[in-house]
Automatic annotation (TrEMBL):
Keyword Coiled coil in annotation: yes
Top-level lineage group: Bacteria
Sorted UniProt keywords: Coiled coil
Protein name: Uncharacterized protein
Coiled coil residues, start to end: 18-101
Length: 329
């Protein structure tokens, strides 16, 4: 076996290599510095972007605030416009009334819309009696509520019957099938469910029973009162119709004669019927005349007189007419 021998390498000059490494290290340091500066610049730009996002959010919030303020201003302006239009209509009606008074022929007759003839007083009394009799009856809505209570109870009774039929059917199956068989197990499961349904229906039945008893008594009592109140209610409706016709003739005669109308009438209705909606105007005016005669209103300023107490029989009628008069003004 032969061996190759190598002679020792003489000492090498490492200076150039070290200087090259130092140069490369300095280059890397410079690159690190550049990267750090770039990173700082990036962070600065990110901070600017964050600030910009914050400013954008503030601008959006400011815009929302401005839009809400503008919306409130529009609503307020619309309300002011509506109030102004309402007031202008009132002033227009008063101006028309004053003009009518100024231009009235001194020889023109004065309309008498307040004197109540004896026959009208009798009609008014019959009308009030009919209203009083009808007020003692249940409304259609109240009767429907009572009817519903009876139907709910009837439904609960039927549910309980159905549940008990299921219990009996399941018990028969249990008695005629072999314990442990598929049919027996199914019947046992059905028996348990039917018992639970029966218990639930019985509880619901009990809860609704009292309401049913009260509802049935209320309807039976109302049916009896309707039989007793039938004649006065019918008489009252006939009286209302006759009184309405009489007041229409009275007002038509005053308008035909160009008579001077009382101020309590002119204030809400004006001195003459409008060119448009004349029939609607006439119907409301006649309804006010009927109200005044029926409830003995003699106020010379207010068409409907003072507001009656909330417990008064004609309170709701007063409120209904007052609302219609407000819509006219």
């Amino acid at each position: 076996m032969s061996y190759t021998s190598y002679s020792a390498t003489p000492d090498k000059d490492w200076g150039p290599d070290i200087r090259g490494l130092e140069h490369r290290v300095r280059g890397l340091d410079d690159r690190v510095d550049d990267v750090e500066r770039e990173q700082q610049g990036t962070q600065t730009r990110l901070g600017d972007v964050h600030d910009l996002g914050y400013e954008l959010r503030r601008l959006r919030e400011s815009l929302d605030t401005v839009e809400n303020t503008a919306e409130d201003a529009r609503d307020e302006l619309a309300e002011h416009i509506s109030d102004t239009a309402h007031e202008l209509n009132r002033l227009k009606a008063r101006l028309q009334a004053l003009e009518a008074l100024v231009r009235t022929d001194p020889d023109a007759p004065v309309a008498d819309l307040d004197t109540v003839e004896p026959a009208w007083a009798e009609l008014a009394a019959a009308f009030r009696a009919g209203q009083l009799a009808e007020a003692g009856l249940l409304s259609d809505h109240q009767r429907q509520l009572h009817t519903n209570a009876i139907q709910y109870h009837r439904g609960a009774v039927q549910q309980q019957r159905d549940a008990r039929d299921r219990v009996i059917a399941a018990a028969r199956t249990l008695a005629t099938t072999e314990p442990g068989s598929k049919g027996h197990r199914a019947a046992a499961d059905e028996f348990a469910k039917a018992l639970e349904a029966d218990s639930s229906a019985a509880q619901r039945h009990g809860n609704l029973a009292m309401n049913m008893v009260k509802a049935r008594a209320a309807l039976e009592n109302d049916d009896k009162r309707r039989v007793e109140a039938g004649p006065p209610i019918e008489a009252g409706r006939r009286a209302e119709l006759q009184l309405t016709q009489a007041m229409r003739r009275r007002l038509a005669a005053a308008l035909r004669d160009r008579a001077t109308l009382p101020m309590w009438f002119v204030t809400p209705f004006g001195p003459v019927p409008p060119a448009r909606g004349t029939e609607k105007w006439m119907n409301l005016a006649v309804a006010v005349l009927v109200y005044r005669v029926t409830h003995s209103v003699t106020d010379q300023v207010l068409a409907l007189g003072p507001t009656p107490a909330p417990t008064a029989q004609h309170f709701h009628q007063h409120q209904d007419l007052a609302q219609k008069l407000r819509k006219r003004s």
